Every structure is written in structure tokens, then in C-alpha cells.
Amino acid sequence: MSQSETLTEASDNKIAARSVDVFYGKNHAIKNVDVDIDDKTVTAFIGPSGCGKSTFLRCLNRMNDTIDIARVEGDILLDGEDIYDKRVDPVQLRARVGMVFQKPNPFPKSIYDNVAYGPRIHGLTRNKSELDDIVEASLRRAALWDEAKDRLKESGTGMSGGQQQRLCIARAVATQPEVLLMDEPCSALDPIATAQIEELIDELRQNFCVVIVTHSMQQAARVSQKTAFFHLGEMVEYGDTEKIFNSPEDKRTESYITGRIG
Ligand SMILES: Nc1ncnc2c1ncn2[C@@H]1O[C@H](COP(=O)(O)OP(=O)(O)OP(=O)(O)O)[C@@H](O)[C@H]1O
């Protein structure tokens, strides 16, 4: 059992999805998904390739808006507010609901400017000293400060893959988001860098609602407290990670966990 499962602080609902469907043209990729995602918790989305994990994750900060043929139906509430309401600015929303992608994608800018980017465009600081503080705090949160503090002016793209991914996490947390979405954040990393990111995810959940898509069931079991199993666009089962892995209710979940499908 992971260290994270032994911690028992209170968590409450952060995101509620109600009757969510997603279509890419005629392809019905997400089918009638309902879920309540807890704050200060790591929730893992697992399931076979193409089952819709990334599509559903992208609904949570309206990243599907950037895909022309994608159509999202249903409601997604963040702290009870409909994020698809016309009055919601998707750019502001993405500052509240940050995202980390599969492949580390730092900007071709200095380490400092990568982290300072969000606070600058969202006008979160009044002066250089405040910005310096946010950059340092974000790099510390991403467990990168010690490695980065003497090279803040160097390019972010010159770091190792694992460092680049932690830099992307620092960039995401710099806008002080409430939710962090992670789409297979370790798939391009070696086992040591993966272990560092997993440890970091466990720390991040003290301050954020974290949702992670992962291909690795071992990773889901290690880092998450809640797990949702997707299959052919349906969310088949959702609950405590321990229960999903040890005594799933649905035959399809059991087949996946035991390696019979996927
Ligand atoms: N940008 C897109 N344009 C068109 N169809 C898409 C797009 N992204 C995903 N799809 C389709 O939606 C369905 C779900 O894909 P999605 O990438 O969400 O699944 P996934 O579970 O994350 O898969 P994987 O584990 O392989 O990343 C698939 O049929 C896929 O082909």
C-alpha cells in the first residue's frame, strides 16, 4: 500500500461531471459520464488505449475546445460552477485547472521565464520581487529548486527529460491553480525520473486536486486514492483505488486489472 493511502485528511468534491458525452464528428468517444472528483486527492483514469481517458481529462479544462471536430455535451462543474458557461473565459479557466502533458514541453525560454510566463500573462504579481518569489515557490513545489536555482537564466529545453517535466509542473503550479490535470506525465521518462514525479504527485495533492491519466496500473495503484476505469468511452467503475484493484464490482474492470483485456 502506498504512503499516500495512509493519510486521511478530509477531502471534498471539487469537480462534478454530469451526463458528459464527447463526439469527434460521428465518433462517440465519451458516453454519459457522471463523476465527482475529490479535492486534495489524486484521481487516476485508467483503461485500454482509445477508451477516452485523455478525451475526458481534456473536458475538465476545456482543452477539447481547441479541437475543431470535438463536441462536448453535459455539465462539468468546478466548485459548483459550470465551466462551459458562455461567461467563462477558457484561458482563465486553464489558469485554475492547469495541465501537464505526456511529453515535457517547456517553452524555448529560460527556466525562470517558463515559470514566470503564467503569472505574467495573468497579472498575478505587482513587481519583480513578487515574481521572483512565485518562481522560487513554484520550482520548490515541483522539487526542482535545488537543481535550477543556479541556472535560472539557462534554457528550459536544455534540462533532462525528468527536469523538463518538473519544470512543466512548476509552470503549471505558478498560476496557483486549484486542479492539476496530468496526461501520462511519466510516459517519456526513465524509471528514476518517473519515481521522482510520482513522489511529487503525492506531495502536490496536499494543495491541489490532481487528476492523472496513466497507462500503468502500477502507477495508478502507487499514486492515486481514487481510480476511474474507462472502457469504450464509458466510465465503467469509479471508487477507492484499493477497491478498484482488489475487489472491482464490474467484470470488465476485473478483466482489465487482471490483464485479460487491454
Ligand atoms: N483529436 C482527436 N480527433 C479525433 N478523434 C480523436 C481525437 N482524440 C481522440 N480521438 C478519438 O477518441 C477516442 C478516445 O481517444 P482518447 O485519446 O481519449 O483515448 P485514451 O484512452 O486516452 O487513449 P490512449 O490511452 O491510447 O492515449 C478514440 O477513438 C480516438 O481515436
From TrEMBL:
CDD domains tied to this protein: ABC_PstB_phosphate_transporter (cd03260)
Location in the cell: Cell inner membrane
Domain of life per record: Bacteria
Gene3D superfamilies listed in its UniProt record: P-loop containing nucleotide triphosphate hydrolases
Function: Part of the ABC transporter complex PstSACB involved in phosphate import. Responsible for energy coupling to the transport system.
Membrane-related topology note: Peripheral membrane protein
This protein's record includes keyword Nucleotide-binding: yes
Classification lineage: Bacteria, Pseudomonadati, Pseudomonadota, Alphaproteobacteria, Hyphomicrobiales
Predominant cellular place of this UniProt entry's protein: membrane
Stretches assigned to the ABC transporter domain: 15-257
Record protein name field: Phosphate ABC transporter ATP-binding protein
Family: Belongs to the ABC transporter superfamily.
Pfam families according to UniProt: ABC_tran (PF00005)
GO molecular function, a single term: ATP binding
Keywords recorded for this protein, A-Z: ATP-binding, Cell membrane, Membrane, Nucleotide-binding, Phosphate transport, Translocase, Transport
One GO term of the biological process aspect: phosphate ion transmembrane transport
